[in-house]
Protein backbone atom coordinates (compact mmCIF):
# COMPACT_ATOMS: atom_id res chain seq x y z
CA UNK A 1 0.00 0.00 0.00
CA UNK A 2 1.43 3.35 -1.07
CA UNK A 3 1.89 5.91 1.64
CA UNK A 4 0.46 9.42 1.07
CA UNK A 5 3.63 11.48 1.14
CA UNK A 6 3.45 15.27 1.48
CA UNK A 7 4.49 15.66 -2.16
CA UNK A 8 1.74 13.27 -3.34
CA UNK A 9 -0.87 15.04 -1.17
CA UNK A 10 0.12 18.40 -2.67
CA UNK A 11 -0.16 16.98 -6.19
CA UNK A 12 -3.64 15.60 -5.51
CA UNK A 13 -4.71 18.92 -3.98
CA UNK A 14 -3.43 20.88 -6.98
CA UNK A 15 -5.14 18.50 -9.42
CA UNK A 16 -8.48 18.74 -7.59
CA UNK A 17 -8.23 22.52 -7.38
CA UNK A 18 -7.52 22.73 -11.09
CA UNK A 19 -10.47 20.46 -11.87
CA UNK A 20 -12.83 22.52 -9.70
CA UNK A 21 -11.60 25.75 -11.29
CA UNK A 22 -12.11 24.30 -14.78
CA UNK A 23 -15.66 23.15 -14.01
CA UNK A 24 -16.52 26.50 -12.42
CA UNK A 25 -15.11 28.42 -15.38
CA UNK A 26 -17.08 26.23 -17.81
CA UNK A 27 -20.31 26.75 -15.85
CA UNK A 28 -19.71 30.50 -15.75
CA UNK A 29 -19.13 30.56 -19.49
CA UNK A 30 -22.31 28.59 -20.08
CA UNK A 31 -24.35 30.98 -17.94
CA UNK A 32 -22.80 34.00 -19.58
CA UNK A 33 -23.59 32.80 -23.09
CA UNK A 34 -27.00 31.21 -22.40
CA UNK A 35 -29.83 33.43 -23.66
CA UNK A 36 -32.25 34.87 -21.14
CA UNK A 37 -35.58 33.06 -21.25
CA UNK A 38 -37.89 34.95 -23.59
CA UNK A 39 -41.25 35.38 -21.95
CA UNK A 40 -44.30 35.34 -24.17
CA UNK A 41 -46.42 38.49 -24.13
CA UNK A 42 -49.94 37.65 -25.27
CA UNK A 43 -52.71 39.96 -26.49
CA UNK A 44 -56.11 38.33 -26.96
CA UNK A 45 -57.92 40.52 -29.50
CA UNK A 46 -61.62 39.83 -29.49
CA UNK A 47 -65.04 41.37 -28.84
CA UNK A 48 -67.85 40.93 -26.31
CA UNK A 49 -69.79 37.65 -26.51
CA UNK A 50 -67.11 35.87 -28.52
CA UNK A 51 -66.03 33.38 -25.85
CA UNK A 52 -63.15 35.56 -24.65
CA UNK A 53 -64.02 35.16 -20.95
CA UNK A 54 -64.01 31.38 -21.30
CA UNK A 55 -60.64 31.45 -23.07
CA UNK A 56 -59.15 33.75 -20.42
CA UNK A 57 -60.40 31.49 -17.62
CA UNK A 58 -59.02 28.37 -19.32
CA UNK A 59 -55.63 30.08 -19.70
CA UNK A 60 -55.74 30.98 -16.01
CA UNK A 61 -55.86 27.28 -15.13
CA UNK A 62 -52.36 26.89 -16.61
CA UNK A 63 -49.59 27.16 -14.05
CA UNK A 64 -47.18 28.91 -16.43
CA UNK A 65 -49.55 31.70 -17.53
CA UNK A 66 -50.46 35.05 -15.96
CA UNK A 67 -53.64 36.02 -17.81
CA UNK A 68 -55.31 39.31 -17.00
CA UNK A 69 -58.81 40.36 -17.95
CA UNK A 70 -59.48 43.83 -19.38
CA UNK A 71 -56.86 46.22 -17.94
CA UNK A 72 -57.50 48.75 -20.74
CA UNK A 73 -61.26 48.92 -20.19
CA UNK A 74 -62.52 52.49 -19.73
CA UNK A 75 -63.58 51.57 -16.19
CA UNK A 76 -61.21 50.51 -13.43
CA UNK A 77 -61.73 46.74 -13.32
CA UNK A 78 -58.48 45.87 -11.56
CA UNK A 79 -60.28 44.30 -8.61
CA UNK A 80 -62.79 42.36 -10.71
CA UNK A 81 -62.48 38.60 -10.35
CA UNK A 82 -63.52 38.10 -13.97
CA UNK A 83 -62.00 41.09 -15.77
CA UNK A 84 -59.32 42.27 -13.34
CA UNK A 85 -55.61 41.62 -12.84
CA UNK A 86 -54.54 38.04 -12.18
CA UNK A 87 -52.33 36.47 -9.50
CA UNK A 88 -52.41 39.48 -7.14
CA UNK A 89 -50.58 41.67 -9.65
CA UNK A 90 -50.68 45.40 -8.87
CA UNK A 91 -49.69 48.32 -11.09
CA UNK A 92 -48.82 51.94 -10.46
CA UNK A 93 -51.94 54.10 -10.18
CA UNK A 94 -50.52 56.83 -12.41
CA UNK A 95 -49.57 54.39 -15.16
CA UNK A 96 -53.03 52.91 -14.94
CA UNK A 97 -54.73 56.31 -15.06
CA UNK A 98 -52.78 57.24 -18.21
CA UNK A 99 -53.39 53.89 -19.91
CA UNK A 100 -55.35 55.37 -22.84
CA UNK A 101 -52.94 58.23 -23.59
CA UNK A 102 -49.75 56.30 -22.74
CA UNK A 103 -50.51 52.59 -23.04
CA UNK A 104 -46.81 51.70 -23.13
CA UNK A 105 -46.46 52.48 -19.40
CA UNK A 106 -49.13 49.98 -18.40
CA UNK A 107 -47.89 47.42 -20.92
CA UNK A 108 -44.37 47.63 -19.46
CA UNK A 109 -45.75 47.31 -15.93
CA UNK A 110 -47.74 44.20 -16.85
CA UNK A 111 -44.76 42.67 -18.67
CA UNK A 112 -42.47 43.11 -15.66
CA UNK A 113 -44.80 41.34 -13.24
CA UNK A 114 -44.63 37.87 -14.71
CA UNK A 115 -44.40 36.00 -11.37
CA UNK A 116 -41.78 33.74 -13.01
CA UNK A 117 -44.40 32.45 -15.46
CA UNK A 118 -43.59 32.01 -19.13
CA UNK A 119 -46.65 33.89 -20.44
CA UNK A 120 -48.16 37.26 -19.52
CA UNK A 121 -51.28 38.39 -21.34
CA UNK A 122 -54.62 40.18 -21.37
CA UNK A 123 -57.62 40.66 -23.63
CA UNK A 124 -58.32 43.73 -25.71
CA UNK A 125 -61.52 44.94 -27.39
CA UNK A 126 -61.92 47.60 -30.06
CA UNK A 127 -63.33 50.04 -27.49
CA UNK A 128 -60.36 49.65 -25.14
CA UNK A 129 -57.88 51.69 -27.14
CA UNK A 130 -57.31 54.58 -29.49
CA UNK A 131 -56.83 52.80 -32.81
CA UNK A 132 -53.98 55.19 -33.66
CA UNK A 133 -52.01 53.53 -30.85
CA UNK A 134 -52.63 49.98 -32.03
CA UNK A 135 -48.98 49.63 -33.08
CA UNK A 136 -47.94 50.10 -29.45
CA UNK A 137 -49.84 46.95 -28.49
CA UNK A 138 -48.59 44.96 -31.49
CA UNK A 139 -44.98 45.97 -30.77
CA UNK A 140 -45.34 44.81 -27.16
CA UNK A 141 -46.93 41.47 -28.03
CA UNK A 142 -44.91 38.44 -29.04
CA UNK A 143 -48.10 36.43 -29.54
CA UNK A 144 -51.54 37.54 -30.74
CA UNK A 145 -54.75 35.51 -30.64
CA UNK A 146 -57.49 36.82 -32.92
CA UNK A 147 -60.76 35.44 -31.58
CA UNK A 148 -63.88 36.10 -33.63
CA UNK A 149 -67.49 34.96 -33.74
CA UNK A 150 -68.59 34.10 -37.26
CA UNK A 151 -72.28 34.65 -36.55
CA UNK A 152 -72.31 38.41 -35.99
CA UNK A 153 -76.08 38.58 -35.55
CA UNK A 154 -76.11 35.98 -32.77
CA UNK A 155 -73.20 37.81 -31.16
CA UNK A 156 -75.11 41.10 -31.28
CA UNK A 157 -78.25 39.54 -29.81
CA UNK A 158 -76.13 38.03 -27.04
CA UNK A 159 -74.74 41.51 -26.28
CA UNK A 160 -78.29 42.87 -26.13
CA UNK A 161 -79.36 40.13 -23.73
CA UNK A 162 -76.33 40.72 -21.51
CA UNK A 163 -77.16 44.42 -21.40
CA UNK A 164 -80.77 43.64 -20.50
CA UNK A 165 -79.78 41.39 -17.59
CA UNK A 166 -76.48 43.12 -16.72
CA UNK A 167 -74.97 39.64 -16.54
CA UNK A 168 -71.96 39.09 -18.80
CA UNK A 169 -70.90 35.60 -17.72
CA UNK A 170 -72.70 32.58 -16.32
CA UNK A 171 -71.23 29.92 -14.06
CA UNK A 172 -72.50 26.58 -12.77
CA UNK A 173 -75.40 27.32 -10.43
CA UNK A 174 -76.01 30.84 -11.77
CA UNK A 175 -79.57 32.13 -11.92
CA UNK A 176 -81.23 31.93 -15.32
CA UNK A 177 -82.28 35.10 -17.13
CA UNK A 178 -85.05 34.94 -19.71
CA UNK A 179 -85.09 38.37 -21.32
CA UNK A 180 -86.51 39.45 -24.65
CA UNK A 181 -85.04 42.22 -26.78
CA UNK A 182 -85.82 44.07 -29.98
CA UNK A 183 -83.03 44.46 -32.51
CA UNK A 184 -82.67 47.72 -34.40
CA UNK A 185 -81.30 46.91 -37.84
CA UNK A 186 -79.50 50.26 -38.14
CA UNK A 187 -77.75 49.85 -34.78
CA UNK A 188 -76.69 46.32 -35.67
CA UNK A 189 -75.31 47.61 -38.96
CA UNK A 190 -73.32 50.36 -37.18
CA UNK A 191 -71.90 47.92 -34.64
CA UNK A 192 -71.00 45.18 -37.14
CA UNK A 193 -69.24 47.64 -39.47
CA UNK A 194 -67.28 49.04 -36.52
CA UNK A 195 -66.06 45.59 -35.46
CA UNK A 196 -65.21 44.62 -39.04
CA UNK A 197 -63.26 47.86 -39.46
CA UNK A 198 -61.26 47.11 -36.31
CA UNK A 199 -60.29 43.65 -37.54
CA UNK A 200 -59.28 45.13 -40.90
CA UNK A 201 -57.19 47.76 -39.10
CA UNK A 202 -55.42 45.05 -37.11
CA UNK A 203 -54.70 43.00 -40.22
CA UNK A 204 -53.27 46.03 -42.06
CA UNK A 205 -51.07 46.89 -39.08
CA UNK A 206 -49.77 43.32 -38.90
CA UNK A 207 -48.98 43.34 -42.62
CA UNK A 208 -46.93 46.54 -42.25
CA UNK A 209 -45.17 45.63 -38.99
CA UNK A 210 -41.41 45.13 -39.21
CA UNK A 211 -41.46 42.48 -36.47
CA UNK A 212 -45.06 41.29 -36.12
CA UNK A 213 -46.14 38.94 -33.33
CA UNK A 214 -47.10 35.37 -34.05
CA UNK A 215 -50.82 35.11 -34.79
CA UNK A 216 -53.32 32.37 -33.97
CA UNK A 217 -56.85 32.63 -35.40
CA UNK A 218 -59.71 31.15 -33.36
CA UNK A 219 -63.48 31.29 -33.83
CA UNK A 220 -66.18 30.90 -31.23
CA UNK A 221 -68.24 28.43 -33.24
CA UNK A 222 -65.39 26.10 -34.20
CA UNK A 223 -63.10 26.31 -31.19
CA UNK A 224 -65.02 27.29 -28.04
CA UNK A 225 -68.78 26.78 -28.32
CA UNK A 226 -68.80 22.99 -28.07
CA UNK A 227 -67.25 21.53 -24.88
CA UNK A 228 -65.62 18.66 -26.80
CA UNK A 229 -63.67 21.14 -28.98
CA UNK A 230 -62.10 23.06 -26.10
CA UNK A 231 -59.45 20.49 -25.20
CA UNK A 232 -58.04 20.49 -28.73
CA UNK A 233 -58.24 24.28 -28.76
CA UNK A 234 -56.21 24.58 -25.58
CA UNK A 235 -53.60 22.16 -26.88
CA UNK A 236 -53.25 24.40 -29.97
CA UNK A 237 -52.97 27.49 -27.77
CA UNK A 238 -50.33 25.86 -25.56
CA UNK A 239 -48.22 24.86 -28.56
CA UNK A 240 -48.61 28.38 -29.95
CA UNK A 241 -47.39 29.91 -26.67
CA UNK A 242 -44.58 27.41 -26.23
CA UNK A 243 -45.73 25.99 -22.90
CA UNK A 244 -46.27 22.43 -21.79
CA UNK A 245 -49.73 20.92 -21.55
CA UNK A 246 -51.30 22.15 -18.33
CA UNK A 247 -54.57 24.00 -18.90
CA UNK A 248 -57.78 22.39 -17.66
CA UNK A 249 -60.50 23.13 -20.24
CA UNK A 250 -63.02 21.05 -18.29
CA UNK A 251 -62.44 22.63 -14.85
CA UNK A 252 -65.63 22.84 -12.81
CA UNK A 253 -65.37 26.59 -12.14
CA UNK A 254 -65.21 27.68 -15.78
CA UNK A 255 -68.02 29.84 -17.20
CA UNK A 256 -70.81 28.06 -19.03
CA UNK A 257 -72.90 28.98 -22.04
CA UNK A 258 -75.18 31.77 -20.88
CA UNK A 259 -77.96 31.17 -23.40
CA UNK A 260 -78.43 27.43 -23.79
CA UNK A 261 -80.97 27.86 -26.60
CA UNK A 262 -80.96 29.72 -29.88
CA UNK A 263 -80.51 33.39 -28.94
CA UNK A 264 -82.80 34.35 -31.81
CA UNK A 265 -85.68 32.97 -29.78
CA UNK A 266 -85.20 36.03 -27.56
CA UNK A 267 -85.67 38.57 -30.38
CA UNK A 268 -89.22 39.89 -30.39
CA UNK A 269 -89.02 41.42 -33.87
CA UNK A 270 -87.00 38.67 -35.56
CA UNK A 271 -89.49 38.28 -38.42
CA UNK A 272 -89.03 41.94 -39.37
CA UNK A 273 -85.26 41.95 -38.84
CA UNK A 274 -84.79 38.82 -40.95
CA UNK A 275 -86.45 40.58 -43.87
CA UNK A 276 -83.99 43.50 -43.83
CA UNK A 277 -80.80 41.95 -42.45
CA UNK A 278 -79.06 39.22 -44.45
CA UNK A 279 -76.95 38.47 -41.36
CA UNK A 280 -80.08 37.62 -39.38
CA UNK A 281 -81.38 35.34 -42.11
CA UNK A 282 -78.03 33.55 -42.31
CA UNK A 283 -77.66 33.22 -38.53
CA UNK A 284 -77.36 29.66 -37.28
CA UNK A 285 -77.48 28.59 -33.63
CA UNK A 286 -74.41 27.14 -31.98
CA UNK A 287 -76.72 24.78 -30.09
CA UNK A 288 -79.22 22.10 -30.98
CA UNK A 289 -81.93 23.73 -33.08
CA UNK A 290 -85.36 24.19 -31.62
CA UNK A 291 -88.54 25.84 -32.82
CA UNK A 292 -88.35 29.63 -32.84
CA UNK A 293 -91.02 31.37 -30.80
CA UNK A 294 -93.51 33.16 -33.05
CA UNK A 295 -95.77 35.66 -31.30
CA UNK A 296 -98.47 35.53 -33.97
CA UNK A 297 -98.46 31.71 -34.05
CA UNK A 298 -98.02 30.98 -30.36
CA UNK A 299 -100.69 33.41 -29.18
CA UNK A 300 -103.03 32.85 -32.13
CA UNK A 301 -106.33 34.64 -31.89
CA UNK A 302 -105.07 37.27 -29.46
CA UNK A 303 -105.57 40.93 -30.31
CA UNK A 304 -101.86 41.46 -29.60
CA UNK A 305 -101.79 45.03 -30.91
CA UNK A 306 -105.04 46.02 -29.25
CA UNK A 307 -105.54 47.67 -25.91
CA UNK A 308 -108.80 46.00 -24.91
CA UNK A 309 -108.21 43.65 -21.98
CA UNK A 310 -108.87 40.06 -23.11
CA UNK A 311 -111.01 37.58 -21.27
CA UNK A 312 -109.40 35.71 -18.40
CA UNK A 313 -108.54 32.47 -20.27
CA UNK A 314 -106.36 34.44 -22.66
CA UNK A 315 -104.92 36.99 -20.25
CA UNK A 316 -101.54 35.30 -19.94
CA UNK A 317 -101.04 34.99 -23.70
CA UNK A 318 -102.11 38.59 -24.22
CA UNK A 319 -99.65 39.81 -21.57
CA UNK A 320 -96.84 37.83 -23.20
CA UNK A 321 -97.56 39.37 -26.58
CA UNK A 322 -97.62 42.89 -25.15
CA UNK A 323 -94.32 42.23 -23.36
CA UNK A 324 -92.72 41.28 -26.65
CA UNK A 325 -93.77 44.58 -28.17
CA UNK A 326 -92.29 46.50 -25.24
CA UNK A 327 -88.94 44.70 -25.25
CA UNK A 328 -85.92 47.04 -25.14
CA UNK A 329 -83.57 47.86 -27.99
CA UNK A 330 -79.86 47.15 -27.71
CA UNK A 331 -77.62 50.10 -26.81
CA UNK A 332 -74.66 48.77 -28.79
CA UNK A 333 -74.30 50.82 -31.95
CA UNK A 334 -76.45 53.64 -30.60
CA UNK A 335 -75.49 57.23 -29.71
CA UNK A 336 -72.53 57.40 -27.37
CA UNK A 337 -71.90 53.67 -27.28
CA UNK A 338 -68.20 54.00 -28.08
UniProtKB/TrEMBL annotation:
<dbReference type="InterPro" id="IPR024628">
    <property type="entry name" value="Sulfotransferase_Stf0_dom"/>
</dbReference>
<protein>
    <recommendedName>
        <fullName>Sulphotransferase Stf0 domain-containing protein</fullName>
    </recommendedName>
</protein>
<feature type="domain" description="Sulphotransferase Stf0">
    <location>
        <begin position="43"/>
        <end position="190"/>
    </location>
</feature>
<dbReference type="InterPro" id="IPR027417">
    <property type="entry name" value="P-loop_NTPase"/>
</dbReference>
<dbReference type="Pfam" id="PF09037">
    <property type="entry name" value="Sulphotransf"/>
</dbReference>
Amino acid sequence: MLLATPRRRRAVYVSCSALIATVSLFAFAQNATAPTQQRARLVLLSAPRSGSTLLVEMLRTHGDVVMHGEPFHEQDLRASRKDGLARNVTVDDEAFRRRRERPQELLDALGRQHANRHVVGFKLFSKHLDWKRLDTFLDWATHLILLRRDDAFAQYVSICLAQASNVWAAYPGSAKHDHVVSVDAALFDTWSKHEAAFVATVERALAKAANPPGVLHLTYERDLCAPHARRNTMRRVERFLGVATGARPDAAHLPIKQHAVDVRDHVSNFEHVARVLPAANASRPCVEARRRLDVRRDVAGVDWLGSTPPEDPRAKAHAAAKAFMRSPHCKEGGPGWL
